[in-house]
Amino acid sequence: MFVDTHAHLTDSAFDEDRDEVIKFSQECMVSKIITSGFNIPSSFDAIALANKFDGVYASIGVYPENIYEVGDDFESKFSSLAKEKKVVAFGEIGLQYTPDMPAKDKQIQIFLRQLVLADKLGLPVVIHCRDAYGDLLALLKENKNLLNNGGTMHCYGGSIEMAQMLIRLGLHISVGGVSTFKNAQRLKEVIKEIPLQHLLLETDCPYLTPHPFRGKRNSPAFIPTIAQNLADIKGITVDEVAKVTTQNAEEVFKLC
Ligand code: NI
């Protein structure tokens, strides 16, 4: 069996057939799925969906793009959401320094507050990072006391040196559809160097559909495709990828 450690099943792309997508994914051996929020309403929706399906779990948090909409009392709202027993992670949270995103200092401030909250709640973190690895690493190193519950670098796209430093901070590295792209040679080389015990699988669906299905909507049912690609990169069997990454996910997120 497989675990999709990062999906967005509450996205409107699944409005027509969400239940079927979950059932079909479970038939494709993707027995456990963590569906991720990106603000308060989507975190609430993620919990509602997790409560409806065995094998579906929720992650709650505010994505960089959404930090202005959550208000200043978000800690109390997320603290009460975190009491739900299917909440297994805090995220996706992080930094994205692209021109369309909020100011860097505001992003850092909210990210740090969410790290503090996740630690207080005893939850592993799911970290998003784009064009901000330098600041991210500095911030995580300064605050490594907040990472005692571990977590994951979702859709990892950095260097091997960066990955090794993140692993030393107690984080796992999550591999998704981008690793299957034909132009992802550098990422494939990075992944090859990271021991399997530090890797997780994810889709980030409905985005980032793996090769050769690019152009179609992504779903957790594509996890076996991503796992086969990882097995090919590492020269091992897909069964071994399934066994170890599932064990990793169950440990990091305490899935039962
Ligand atoms: Ni995501």
Short overview:
The chain is of the alpha/beta class and 256 residues long.
Layout of helices and strands, plus pairs?
Elements: E1 2-7, H1 18-27, E2 30-36, H2 40-52, E3 56-60, H3 74-81, E4 87-96, H4 104-121, E5 125-130, H5 133-142, E6 151-153, H6 160-168, E7 171-175, H7 185-193, E8 199-201, H8 223-234, H9 238-253
Parallel strand pairs: 1-2, 2-3, 3-4, 4-5, 5-6, 6-7, 7-8
The structure holds nickel (II) ion.
Would you identify the CATH architecture?
A: Alpha-Beta Barrel
Largest sheet: 8 strands, parallel
Low-confidence stretches: none
Distance linking N and C termini: 14 Å
Structure description:
This protein is α/β, with parallel strands linked by helices. The chain has one domain (2-253): Metal-dependent hydrolases (TIM Barrel, Alpha-Beta Barrel). Helices cover 41% and strands 18% of the residues. It contains nine helices and eight strands. The chain has helices at residues 18-27, 40-52, 74-81, 104-121, 133-142, 160-168, 185-193, 223-234, 238-253; strands at 2-7, 30-36, 56-60, 87-96, 125-130, 151-153, 171-175, 199-201. It has an eight-stranded parallel sheet, sandwiched between helices. Helix 2 (40-52) runs parallel beside helix 3 (74-81) and helix 8 (223-234) packs across helix 9 (238-253). The longest helix has 18 residues, at 104-121. The radius of gyration is 17 Å and the shape is globular. The model has no long low-confidence stretch (mean pLDDT 97).
